[in-house]
Amino acid sequence: MNQILGNELQFQPRKSPPSIQKFKLIFWISFSFIIICLIFYFFIQYNAWQKEKLSQDLANSFEIRNLYSNTNDYIAKKAIANIENTEPFVIGLLKIDKINLMYPILSTTSEELLKISPCYFYGAMPNKVGNLCIAGHNYANQTHFGKLSSLTEGDTIQIYDLNSNKVDYTIYQILDVKADDTSCLSQNTNGNREVTLVTCNTIKGTRMAIKAKENR
């Protein structure tokens, strides 16, 4: 009898110590969390890539159609899909060769449109007398206005309007302003043409305003 009981005890499966079971549970929870985070990250990146592609398609379409348009009053108007209650269109093109930036200027500003391209915010229309104010996101991946901090006074900004005219503007002032400070949007330009680019300073929590005036 003792021999039989000894054999039964000998072949009983060993249970893992509680510490190993706990380790396995933590491992699988952590692994699942990492997978979810990766899926979320790639979803965000893919969504951003789609919006960037749409922006560049609009910019390229604007540039090509203006080059080959036979009329001076050609309007590059294009609705943007999946945006409710808005009918934005391209009113011009913004280029800054120094930082390899080229984006269409959308006709109105909203949070959804700012994810696609810089937007007309306030003031004069492209290449008209006054201060054309353009708002854009300061993305960490260097798209949109993410590289504006590399600009200095004396650099050139180019604006194309809907009549295919290009005007060069020289940066004369770079400001760091509070979010509620609207002085940089002033339309008092003494009859000159100016451009103001506005974006967030994510480090200081303020806004960067880059002001430029027409070359003469």
Task: Explain the overall architecture.
The protein is an alpha+beta fold. It has a single domain, classed as Beta Barrel (Sortase, Chain: A). It is built from three helices and eight strands; from the N terminus they run H-H-E-E-H-E-E-E-E-E-E.
What attributes does this structure have?
216 residues, alpha+beta, Sortase, Chain: A, 3 helices, 8 strands
N-C termini distance:
110 Å
Quaternary arrangement of the chains shown?
single chain
Which structural class do you get from the secondary structure elements?
A: alpha+beta
Mean pLDDT: 77
User: What is the CATH architecture assignment?
Assistant: Beta Barrel
The fraction of residues in strands falls at 25-35%
Please render the helix and strand layout as text.
Layout: H1 2-10, H2 18-67, E1 90-96, E2 101-106, H3 111-114, E3 119-123, E4 130-135, E5 156-160, E6 166-177, E7 193-201, E8 206-214
Parallel strand pairs: 4-7
Antiparallel strand pairs: 1-2, 1-5, 3-4, 5-6, 6-8, 7-8
Overview in brief:
The protein is built from 3 helices and 8 strands; from the N terminus they run H-H-E-E-H-E-E-E-E-E-E. It is of the alpha+beta class and 216 residues long.
